[in-house]
Amino acid sequence: MSYLEKIDKTRLPRHIAIIMDGNGRWAKERGYERIFGHQAGVESVRQTTEAAAEIGVEYLTLYAFSTENWERPQAEVDALMSLLVDSIQRETPTLNKNNIRLAAIGNLNRLPAGVREKLQACISETAKNTGLTLVLALSYSARWEIVNAVREICEEVERGDYLRDEIDDRLFAQRLTTRSIPDPDLMIRTSGELRISNFLLWQLAYAELYFTPVHWPDFRKDDLYRAIYEFQRRERRFGK
Ligand code: FPP
Questions:
Q1: Pick the CATH number of 13-232 from 3.30.360.10, 2.40.50.100, 3.30.70.360, 3.40.1180.10
Q2: Taking the CA of residue 168 as centre, how many other CA atoms within 13 Å lie in the half-sphere pointing to its CB?
Q3: For position 236, what pLDDT does the model report?
């Protein structure tokens, strides 16, 4: 029986965030270059996005490129960037057909101009869609985002916009790149690593964490449904 049939559709996580890990290992295990794993991972992105949209999840955030990923060999960075642009461009009509809105978080200024333009074009072309919001974390790291927020708040206090004592967690959250997105209810990491790796450190405060040994290129719809099913079996207490 598919996990889809076991899911209670009235208690879905509103926001699922995924660390897509294991592309390199998946490729190496098959004797291929790492980039082959990234290419295979695009199909998992497609399947996961479709599954999330079909079941009625509101937000899906995918960690597609971390700040640390800039340190990878130039050839791998270039290949990942081309893969991203090509996929985004090719999938824009499908996103529209499925009423999916694209958004992006991260230090987008660091992306090559061509990538940024195509990303912005897809964001604009899908802006009116009202179904799933697909958020790509690109050149993203949570510490970068938090330091950025602190700088912004310091400037506002110096300008006299508000007093230091008026800073609270609500105001802080409004200075993060996720300001218009609810916190994730469920965080999935593939490929067996049990770490958060600088991903949404503030926003994951109360998220349920789910780890699976499946490498990202093997991740399919039923793997997402299983994660949602396991999420529903847990009791969330928010510290109460
Ligand atoms: C981690 O695997 C994966 C990435 C750094 C990139 C993920 C990118 C894609 C799936 C391609 C396109 C994405 C979109 C949104 C179209 P890894 O290389 O760290 O694997 P390893 O830990 O086995 O080395």
A1: 3.40.1180.10
A2: 2
A3: 72
